[in-house]
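name: query_chain
kind: protein
chains: 1
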Amino acid sequence: MYHKAALLEESVTGLNIRPGGTYVDATFGGGGHSREILQRLTGGRLIAFDQDEDALVNAPADDRFTLVHHNFRYLRNFLRYHGIERVDGILADLGVSWHEFDEAGRGFSFRFDAPLDMRMNRRAGRTAADVLNDSSEEELARVFRENGEVENARQLAALVAGARGEHPDWRAGEFLKIIAPCVPRERESKYLARVFQALRVEVNEEIDALKDLLLQAGEALRPGGRLAVITYHSLEDRVVKNFLRAGNFEGRVEKDFHGRQERVFEPVNRKVIVPPEEEIAANPRARSAKLRVAEKSGMNETI
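structure:
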């Protein structure tokens, strides 16, 4: 299986589908969310995005469906290209697909001794090996600290910087040997997951792309349209939570002259939605998934 969609029923139901509406699946992957949206449309249209060429084979044969082979950070440009100015709902599942983790040659997982690539879009230039080779020690420490919340980021960066002259090609196996002194034995897997996450986020500019998506979603949605976002780690979840609640990425509450809070979205679910135990048992990779749903406010609508 290419990928099993997390929180499928909850996220698609959260969009409050109009049968003739226009929707966006910003993270197509294996197509699970897209197929569920299409089942709930009697007409309408669905535009999906995925930058990974491997996902293209999963596209359903449906006249209502269009798959855009690009990053979702270009949402508005491609909607306009396809003659769409406003949509009724946008869904984004920010998890890395099973396929990318399980395809050894992609370098996403520390389970395989493969070149450290980690590009979701293999047409892009910079790989994880390039990050390790070209970043200063200070910059590497920032990558590990900010993108992976690695507690000994400075020590880790020093080990990498000291060894990279001998390992310009950076395979996972040699990388693990080099950073071994930093890895706490009692929680090795969790630590390595954070280190690999930090590199992947940097390579794919995931946080910047997410911020671009959220800002453009506010422009692309009609008043009353819904945005549903599934996150998998605290870094991206904090960005989504702050933006939906406060209208900015810092979580800073701003009010107008009358004391009303200024924000683009009104949260639909006041409490974050997580997978039920049955789903986690059937799909352990959904364990860390968190769903937030919000509705576009009409208060500041000018178009």
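note: The two ends are 43 Å apart (CA to CA).
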